[in-house]
TrEMBL record:
<protein>
    <submittedName>
        <fullName>Spore cortex biosynthesis protein YabQ</fullName>
    </submittedName>
</protein>
<dbReference type="Pfam" id="PF09578">
    <property type="entry name" value="Spore_YabQ"/>
</dbReference>
<keyword id="KW-0472">Membrane</keyword>
<keyword id="KW-0812">Transmembrane</keyword>
<feature type="transmembrane region" description="Helical">
    <location>
        <begin position="72"/>
        <end position="105"/>
    </location>
</feature>
<dbReference type="InterPro" id="IPR019074">
    <property type="entry name" value="YabQ"/>
</dbReference>
<feature type="transmembrane region" description="Helical">
    <location>
        <begin position="6"/>
        <end position="28"/>
    </location>
</feature>
<keyword id="KW-1133">Transmembrane helix</keyword>
<feature type="transmembrane region" description="Helical">
    <location>
        <begin position="48"/>
        <end position="66"/>
    </location>
</feature>
Amino acid sequence: MSAEVRYQFYLFGMALLWGGGLCLAYDILRIFRRLIRHRGWMINGEDVLYWLAAAAVFYSLLFRYNQGEIRIFIVLGMIFGGVFYLLTISRVFVHLTVTLFTPLFRLFRRIRMAVFHIFRRRPSEK
């Protein structure tokens, strides 16, 4: 097998990993949203930042490893990597992480509210 074909297999593997990694990053964002309440405009802003970061990752993959040439196997590798992650790991990862961290965040929220309540009390009038 020629060096060029081996390099293309390597790029395809990198694209699979980057596609799965981008989906993992979005799952972390989804977990963060489930644990901490967000307003609509914050969710929209987070999505814009995510997609800007995803575009930068895609561009850097193309620019660094393929001299900026768009190859269909790289695009398909990222798509297949993301779909594979979503069909295998995503649901379990999000569910387990939210289940594990929800009690911790509830405890933190209660402590925060108790401290806020203590400092918010007004001195009693005589």
